[in-house]
């Protein structure tokens, strides 16, 4: 019995050492194809990054993110939680500098507003963490972070909508601010989409001119959120999203080989805690990509059976 206890303890220490010293820095690029474009459309390469949780000393992570520019994405989507430390903005700016003038959109997570706090990790087994943005949280420089993204040419779609033309396809985006801290305003999405299309002379609702023989231009609609709560995913599908991008979960962060994630930190099913899946709502279906993210809280710097990742999604013709 004593020998068995020693072996179990040694295995636990080895797993912790691996997760804290090795795996959390084994960054990987996951590549998937998503058949959502109209027939005959040229592919669109979308780089999805999330949960950088950047601290100023994380040079390896910064350099790895910079290297992602080599995949030459047509679009970058950032699903929030960029900061892991009050002094992390310089690292974010350095890491993302190679994406200058690559079209992009972003939404915020809680760790774009307030800094992380030490907490008991076993509380996550009781359900999503209860984040309250009160006086005990360190306030982050969200305005400066937004300015970094604006200087890259990226568009803020927190509770807003935007459209871009990429490789011959009209891409509509709508996003929400972080649902985990109650900043999502789903009630604004309908109006944002209506305003977007009303101000677009080539909107599907107004084009082609009945007097012409032109075909409707190919359009794809993408919903974006930090935390993939079911009520948000359902709303995005109801608003016509064909693809939804999210982060927040860290893929479970500490997983059991052969079993998967133990927690999700929201109400999404464990089997959809990371990767590409389908989100069904009645007769409607959207592709859902949940990023396992690139960072962790500085107070819980460990990953196990869940490597930090970015995702390259190639949107293709259905």
Automatic annotation (TrEMBL):
InterPro entries: Calcineurin-like_PHP, Metallo-depent_PP-like, Metallophosphoesterase_sf. Gene3D superfamilies: 3.60.21.10. GO terms for biological process: lipid A biosynthetic process. One of its GO terms (cellular component) is membrane. Coiled coil: none annotated. GO terms for molecular function: UDP-2,3-diacylglucosamine hydrolase activity. It comes from the Bacteria. Residues 44-251 form the Calcineurin-like phosphoesterase domain. PANTHER family: CONSERVED PROTEIN (PTHR31302:SF20), TRANSMEMBRANE PROTEIN WITH METALLOPHOSPHOESTERASE DOMAIN-RELATED (PTHR31302). This is Metallophosphatase. It comes from Cryobacterium roopkundense. The lineage of its organism: Bacteria, Bacillati, Actinomycetota, Actinomycetes, Micrococcales.
